[in-house]
Amino acid sequence: MKKFPPEFEALLTKTGRQVLSGRHPALSGVLARGTTRFIGAEGLLDAAKSRALAGVLEGALGDRLMPMEQPIPRGATWKMKVAYKEKLPKTVKVSTAMLDDEKSPSRERAEDIGLIAMLRSKSFHAFAEALSGYPLRRQWGMQTLCYRPKDYSGPHNDHHPDEPLGCDGYTDLHLTFCNSGVDHQWIVYEKDNHLQEIQSIATVGGVTCYRLPFWHYTTPLVAKRGHDRDARRWVLLGTFLDRWS
Ligand SMILES: [Fe+2]
To answer: How many Å apart are CA 118 and CA 144, to the nearest integer?
Structure first.
């Protein structure tokens, strides 16, 4: 597989298609049931195609990424007046390709490998609806992230109180493509008001779906021995607002 297929559906396994058609007893519509705001699943995307696509992403976008870095502000520690009242804004270290921006250096490459078409495909939207269980707008945002060793994102909740259309909740669908150099990376997320849930996101063809906002963080990526220079976790993201009509 040298390019992304025009329709996302072509990457799905039999189980993945079951989710898409609303027939998977555990996964179809899982977030709208209200028992969890996060779901991670493997075995929905074809394994061999997913391994190949990690290489396609590296070849096309590996040298076109923009660093995104928000360190811990010095004042978060040294301007404190009282013990245990610390406040940490979102911290992050990762690279990104802003696919929504038609002038971004990665956009043309992303089009060449069929990535834009697939993330814009009807079945990508349909899959986000089928897995989450929420009716979603037919226009959505997309992005690509690349985690290298030590890249992470600190605790944050992705709440947008200033965004009238998303302030009551919205849905993210993420596809993960690790290359063979990745040892581990985890998402830790909120359940019952504690950061007590944890799941591996060091997958090849793993799918994660979020009903935001909720608190979560992504641990630093750890490479296998000898792979500190080449370990990569690629993430393709779709961000969907609710559809009300
Ligand atoms: Fe997040």
So the answer is: 13
Query: pLDDT exceeding 90 applies to what percent of the chain?
Result: 95
Compute the distance from residue 164 Cα to the ligand 1 centre, in Å.
Answer: 19
pLDDT digits (tens, 9 = 90+) for 83-92: 999 999 999 9
Per-residue pLDDT tens for 164-205?
999 999 999 999 999 999 999 999 999 999 999 999 999 999
Nearest to 130 by CA among 4, 9, 27, 13: 27
Cα(217) to ligand 1 centroid in Å equals 7
**Are residues 136 and 128 in contact, defined by beta-carbon separation less than 8 angstroms?**
yes
How far, in Å, is the centroid of ligand 1 from the Cα of 161? 15
The structure tokens listed for 106 are 């990665």
CA distance 114 to 135: 26
Query: What separation in Å is there between the alpha carbon of 158 and the centre of ligand 1?
Result: 5
Token couple for 47: 């394994």
